[in-house]
TrEMBL record:
UniProt-listed Gene3D superfamilies: P-loop containing nucleotide triphosphate hydrolases
Keywords for this protein: ATP-binding, Nucleotide-binding, Transport
Domain annotation ABC transporter: ranges: 6-240
Protein's organism: Thermogemmata fonticola
PROSITE patterns assigned: ABC_TRANSPORTER_1, ABC_TRANSPORTER_2
Keyword ATP-binding applies: yes
Protein name: ABC transporter ATP-binding protein
Organism taxonomic ancestry: Bacteria, Pseudomonadati, Planctomycetota, Planctomycetia, Gemmatales
Presence of the UniProt keyword Ribosomal protein in the record: no
Gene Ontology molecular-function annotations: ATP binding; ATP hydrolysis activity
Length: 306
């Protein structure tokens, strides 16, 4: 359990109107575990419950029922946020501060010593590629530049858990590749990353596991490689050999006969985009569909729901 950084147990959030009548179930009995050192992707169309989940984990909202834990502590305990870095989809930064002043301000919020603040700010400005623009006020920044300084403020406290909401929003292809490399580097440093994104190729490139939400219900969860595997087909890859009828008849014998080397045998994968769209369409066709978690004997849930 020490390796579980985030856990939700039947986490539910229902929004009600002025008279207390149920208006919308934003999140319905969510059960999730996110482990230390992994990159976890939270996917879903608009209104699926992603932002609600993040706000519940940060203690910005209180659940209607169920529980959420971060670092083994209730999510409502705000002290745990000192170990979290958060990049919202729209960064709420002071437009008339420059990059150095912005990071110094957030460093003060975490009660960092002045020398530590200056050192961390200089390092992060270099990391996010804003050294040449560190004296410019944020009002003059492009959206991509604001996204970079927003990430720097999320890392100013050297957090153990980093929550990123649409981290590649506003970035060009080069900036997107930079952001994905940085996320992977955070994992190498032992950080845990929870990211939400509409760009499915980004999630596929960096995430270890994903969860797909639709209308507040958890529809699927698991390793990206497993979810994208096409178990109905088999793929064989070889090098230094051409395809012949004899090759098809007896792969291993033909590989040796033609001087080739068998590289891999496994199931080809679909794309995360195809998986995502298929699950959403299935969810629309079957409103009661829910992900079935693994049972105690270790077998996997089939995700077919009720």
């Amino acid at each position: 359990m020490a390796d579980v950084v985030v856990e939700t147990r039947s986490l539910t959030k229902v929004y009600r109107d002025f008279w207390g009548r149920k208006k919308k179930t934003a999140l319905n009995a969510l059960d999730l575990k996110i482990y230390r050192g992994e990159i976890f992707g939270l996917l879903g169309p608009n209104g699926s419950g992603k932002t609600t989940t993040i706000k519940l984990l940060l203690g910005l909202l209180f659940p209607t029922s169920g529980d959420a834990f971060v670092f083994g502590e209730p999510a409502a305990k705000v002290e745990k946020n000192e170990r979290i870095g958060y990049l919202p989809e729209e960064s709420y930064l002071y437009r008339f501060l420059n990059a150095e002043e912005t990071l110094d301000f957030y460093g003060r919020l975490f009660h960092l010593d002045p020398e530590v603040r200056r050192k961390r700010a200089a390092e992060l400005i270099e990391i996010v590629g804003l050294s040449a623009d560190k004296k410019r006020i944020l009002k003059e920044y492009s959206k991509g530049m604001r996204q970079r300084i927003g990430l720097a403020q999320a890392l100013i406290n050297d957090p153990e858990l980093i929550i990123l909401d649409e981290p590649t929003s506003g970035l060009d292809p080069i900036g997107t590749r930079w952001m994905k490399d940085l996320i992977l580097d955070l994992k190498k440093k032992g950080k845990t990353v929870l990211m939400c994104s509409h760009r499915l190729d980004d999630v596929q490139d960096v995430c270890d596991r994903i969860a797909i939400l639709y209308n507040g219900d958890l529809q699927e969860v698991g390793e990206v490689s497993r979810l994208l595997a096409d178990a109905a087909r088999l793929e064989v890859r070889a090098r230094n050999v051409k395809e012949t009828p004899q090759l098809k008849a007896d792969l291993e014998e033909v590989f040796r006969k033609h001087g080739g080397t068998l590289e891999s045998v496994g199931h080809p994968t679909t794309t995360l985009e195809d998986l995502f769209l298929r699950i959403v369409e299935e969810s629309k066709a079957r409103p009661g569909r829910r992900y079935l978690p693994p049972v105690e004997n270790g077998t996997s849930g089939n995700g077919s729901g009720n």
